[in-house]
Each structure stands twice: as C-alpha cells, then as structure tokens.
Amino acid sequence: MIIGLTGGIASGKSLLAEYMQAWDLPIIDADAIAREVVEPGRPAYEEIKDFFGNEVFHEDGTLDRKALGSIIFADKEKRNRLNKITHPAIHKEMMNKKEALLNEGNRALIFDIPLLVENGRMNIVDRVLLAYVSEDVQLKRLMERDRSSKEEALERIRSQMPLKEKKDYADAVVDNNGSRVESKNQLLHILTKWGVEMDE
C-alpha cells in the first residue's frame, strides 16, 4: 500500500512522518528529493540557472533557496515555471525509490508530498492521509517556527491550497490542533484500520 502523506506549511506533517519512521515504515520524502534534483550537475539545476539567472545561486554555485523562495512565493507564473522544471525530475526519482523499496519486500510505504493534492498526484497513491490544523493554529505555529511577521506567514499560507479544502481529497485526517500524543493516537488508529503492519 502506498500512503500519500500531505498537509500544508506548519500543519504537523513532519511530526506524523517522524512517528511513521519510528514505526519502521519507509518514507520517500518529496522535499528531500526536491533538494537532490537541484544539486549542481543535475538537469533541473541547469534549467533553473537558465530561467532565473545567477541571483538565485550562492557564490559556491549551490541554489539559494531563500532567494528563489522569495521570488516564487510572490509570483505565480514563476512558481509554475519552477514546478515545471522540478516536478518531472522529482517524480522520476520517487518512482525509482518506490520500486527499490517494494523489491526489498516492503508492503507499505509513505510518499511524503506537501503538494500531493495541488499537483493532482493522488493517482500515484492508494490512500491520502492529511495532516490538519485550523488556520489560526497554522498561522501561530508558522510565525513561531520561522520567526516571521504575520504578513510573511500569511503570504506563505495563502500560496497553498487551504487545508480545509484538502480535507475533501483525504481518505483520513489527523487533527494536529491538540497534543503530540493525541496526534500519535489518531495516526495509530488510522494505520491500524488500513491494515498497515508497524513495529511499535
């Protein structure tokens, strides 16, 4: 079974991934792969350089994620362009990792994909699991986590699909508004119901 773990910024998705990793469920992290595919020498790296220019790179040639982020969060067309460059490369890498894990005998694995719903990728998973928090909790946690202003945090939240809309696409929802223990218990209940074998 392939479970698509998704959420939004500061929704507690990483917490759920931590628990699943602790239970020995293999996780394929789209964000980690996104960092790999833009390393120097990779095709996506060259395409980003061609389109965005040198101002989104550090002096040592590595990608300046903060500079690139500030451009794409404020400009939808440029955000779409970056997605067109990186998404095919990320998808290919994820599928390679999936095949390797299944060939090793894993019966369940997790695709950790923040933009699973936005990018219409539900077809690559068997179940969609959503990490959910209310808007006010999301804003508060993001401001605390990134030490950002309310305006900066809101801009980042609004660049994503609202979590309450994502609920419509989820097979199950973990409500992360409460304590870590409450989140863990909800997650355990869902995975048990889905018949996922875990090492607790």
Automatic annotation (TrEMBL):
- What keywords would UniProt list here? ATP-binding, Coenzyme A biosynthesis, Cytoplasm, Kinase, Nucleotide-binding, Transferase
Entry's localization field: Cytoplasm
Summarize where ATP binds, as residue positions. A10, S11, G12, K13, S14, L15
Report any one BP term from Gene Ontology: coenzyme A biosynthetic process
Q: Which pathway, per its entry?
A: Cofactor biosynthesis; coenzyme A biosynthesis; CoA from (R)-pantothenate: step 5/5
Q: What is its EC number?
A: 2.7.1.24
**What family is this protein classified in?**
Belongs to the CoaE family.
State the reactions this protein catalyses. 3'-dephospho-CoA + ATP = ADP + CoA + H(+)
Keyword Nucleotide-binding annotated: yes
Task: Give me the gene this protein comes from.
Answer: coaE
Q: Which GO terms describe its cellular component?
A: cytoplasm
UniProt protein name: Dephospho-CoA kinase
Q: PROSITE patterns, per this entry?
A: DPCK (PS51219)
Described purpose of this protein according to its UniProt entry: Catalyzes the phosphorylation of the 3'-hydroxyl group of dephosphocoenzyme A to form coenzyme A.
